[in-house]
C-alpha cells in the first residue's frame, strides 16, 4: 500500500474503511519492524545516524507515502483522516527517536508560508530534500514564551537577530531553522514575537554545539547563538508580530505526537513483557502464572488503554479545531508520558537483571522515556494549564 493524494480520507473526514485502516497498519508496521527496528541498537551505540542513512530512510518513507503524513493536501500532504493518522502514529512510535524523526512528522507552522515560500521552501521540505526545525527554547526561556530574549530588529531589507537558543532538535543538520524572536518588547505577548526562517549557511549562526544526553541517542539536540544574523523580509514566516500565533499553531499536534511516542514505547515494552512472562519460568512456574507479575501486566494494560483513549481524543479534537483541543492535548501529553515511565519501569522489573542489560532494548526504553516528561512542555506545565482550565470553567 502506498499513500497519495487519491487515498481515501480528507482532513476531518474519517472515510477510511476498517479494511483500509488495517492494510495501512500492516504496511507501516512491516516497515518499522523489518526496516527500522534492526537499526536501533547500532544507532544507540554510535549516538548518531549517518546523513546517508537518514536521507535513505526519508526517501523510503516518501516512497511508501508516509513522509509528511500529518500534512493536509493544501500543504502538499496526503490529507489523511484523523483515524488514518492515528494508525500511523501508533505504528511509527514503535521505533527509536532518531528513526521516528526520519519518517517526517512535519511542522504545521509551514501553513503560514506565503506563496513564494510555498513554491520553494515548502516543496523542498515535503519532498524530503530539505529539513526544517524550529527554535524556541533559550537558557532563560522554555515554556514561558514571554521570557524570550532573542531580539529581532528591523533594518533595511530585513531583520537582524541576536540571542541564543538551546535544546533545539537537529539544528546542526537542518537546512532551515524557524527562530522565534521578540520584535516588539513593549507589545502584549500575542503581538510581541515574530518567526524567522534562518538558513543553515547564514554566517550569523555562531557556536553550534551538540549536547550529550542520557537517552534519545542518535537524535541531535543543539545549542547556538545568533550574532547580527541577517534575515531578509522574504524569510519571515507569517507577518511580523504573528510569531506567537505561528508557534501555537503546532503546539497541540506536537503534544499529541509526544503522547503517542510515549505510548508507543510503552506498548512495545508491554508486548515484550507479555511474551517473556509466558516463556520464562521461576520457582517451577511461568512468570505469567505468578500473581505479582499478573498484577504488573494488568496495571500496564489499564494505563496503556487510558493513555490511548486520551491521545485519540486529543487528536480528534485538534483535527476539528475544537476549543477543547488545547486542554485535551495537555491531558494526553501529561498522562501518556508519565504513564510510559511507570510501564517501562514495571517491564524492567519483570525482566529482572536481563532488562537492565544492553542486550535488550528495555534499558534504552527506560532512558528514552524520561525525556518525554520534559520536552514539548513539562509535566508541571501541563498540570498548570489543566488546573487553570478546570478552575475557570
Automatic annotation (TrEMBL):
Protein name per its UniProtKB record: Acyl-CoA dehydrogenase
GO terms assigned for molecular function: acyl-CoA dehydrogenase activity; flavin adenine dinucleotide binding
InterPro entries in alphabetical order: Acyl-CoA_DH_CS (IPR006089), Acyl-CoA_Oxase/DH_mid-dom (IPR006091), Acyl-CoA_Oxase/DH_mid-dom_sf (IPR046373), AcylCo_DH-like_C (IPR036250), AcylCo_DH/oxidase_C (IPR009075), AcylCoA_DH/ox_N (IPR013786), AcylCoA_DH/ox_N_sf (IPR037069), AcylCoA_DH/oxidase_NM_dom_sf (IPR009100)
Top-rank taxon: Bacteria
Cofactor: FAD
Domain Acyl-CoA oxidase/dehydrogenase middle: 134-229
Domain named Acyl-CoA dehydrogenase/oxidase N-terminal: residues: 19-127
Annotated family: Belongs to the acyl-CoA dehydrogenase family.
Cited Pfam families: Acyl-CoA_dh_1 (PF00441), Acyl-CoA_dh_M (PF02770), Acyl-CoA_dh_N (PF02771)
Keyword Flavoprotein in annotation: yes
Organism: Orrella marina
Acyl-CoA dehydrogenase/oxidase C-terminal domain: residues covered: 241-391
SUPFAM superfamilies: Acyl-CoA dehydrogenase C-terminal domain-like, Acyl-CoA dehydrogenase NM domain-like
Keywords, in A-Z order: FAD, Flavoprotein, Oxidoreductase
Record keyword Flavoprotein present: yes
Record Gene3D superfamilies: Acyl-CoA dehydrogenase/oxidase, N-terminal domain, Butyryl-CoA Dehydrogenase, subunit A, domain 2, Butyryl-CoA Dehydrogenase, subunit A, domain 3
